[in-house]
Amino acid sequence: MLINSIPKPNFLLSKIVDLKDWAYxxxxxxxxxxxxxxxxxxxxxCGNVGGLVHGxxxxxxxxxxxxxxxxxxxxxxIPMYARCGEMGFARKVFDEMGDRGLVSWNSMIxxxxxxxxxxxxxxxxxxxxxxxxxxxxxxxxxxxxxxSTVGALDLGKWIETHASERGLxxxxxxxxxxxxxxxxxxxxxxxxxxxxxxxxxNEVSWNAMISALAFHGQAQEALSLFWRMSKVNDTVHPxxxxxxxxxxxxxxxxxxxxxxxxxxxxxxxxGLVPKVEHYSCMVYLCARAGLLYEAWDLIKKMxxxxxxxxxxxxxxxxxxxxxxxVGERVIQLFLEQKL
Length: 339
Known about the structure:
PPR repeats lie at residues 101-135, 171-205. Keywords: Repeat. GO terms for molecular function: RNA binding. Pfam families: PPR, PPR_2. The protein is an all-alpha fold. The chain has a domain at 1-99. It has helices spanning 9-18, 22-30, 37-48, 58-66, 71-83, 87-96, 102-114, 118-131, 137-150, 153-165, 172-184, 188-197, 203-215, 219-230, 240-253, 256-268, 276-288, 292-301, 308-321, 324-337. Helix 9 (137-150) runs antiparallel to helix 10. The protein is globular and about 65 Å long. The two termini are 46 Å apart. The model is unreliable at 1-7 and 49-59 (pLDDT under 50).
């Protein structure tokens, strides 16, 4: 291929990647006679977007073949495979590594947690503790995420103790992960304790606590915390995620008036543009209350297409309320979207 006769093939490769032509970049890389670590760095964005050549995984295998044994390459391949959902390949690289440092353990645990393999993430964490590397903040956050998924409350408590011993119990990211873990493991009191003990709170921690209260059906408490957040200081403001949490609380409790007020306040008071997720919450709220025409009006105003769950919810409400008019409109929209 002519690429090998060019004085600076890596420069050309970088320009192709800049143009986001992932497939062509991968083909060029495959034809390099002697790809080096710079070429590997250039190709990393292809993995970030899943643009892997020839059936998704081709150029990663090339990286492994031509640069096998390079520590940096091995550390980079694990998260690349994880982002593509190829945890089998990530585990193969991990198992073949001679020296597994903290970065490699964290990458593997994170990949498992983010790809729905929470139990495997916890098993890896226990292996890591036996192998020697001391868990850091990144480890704790990822393992807490896994704990929240499988209900591993005891391990979550151990991590809080370990975080306290390391002076990380008040780190906003660790504390927010603890709040989420405790709430999803059924220990709301512990979630509140962690939240109230935080000397500094950001949007992530406020959102975690509001969502925790909503998750446990504590709608009024979630609303109170929302208004408390909106008045706390000039550096913390409700955002899109905050409103998803507090609107979800209204849905669970059937608080129609409060939900309307919050939905309208997004643009009027907080300068936020409601997204599909916020409209969906309002559709659920109105449908449950039997306000079917209002729910249909919200669907028509959505900035994107409603999914089958939202439409199914409204259709179910139409059946309960025996409203054939709105029901037929929903069915027609189903057919138009080929859901």
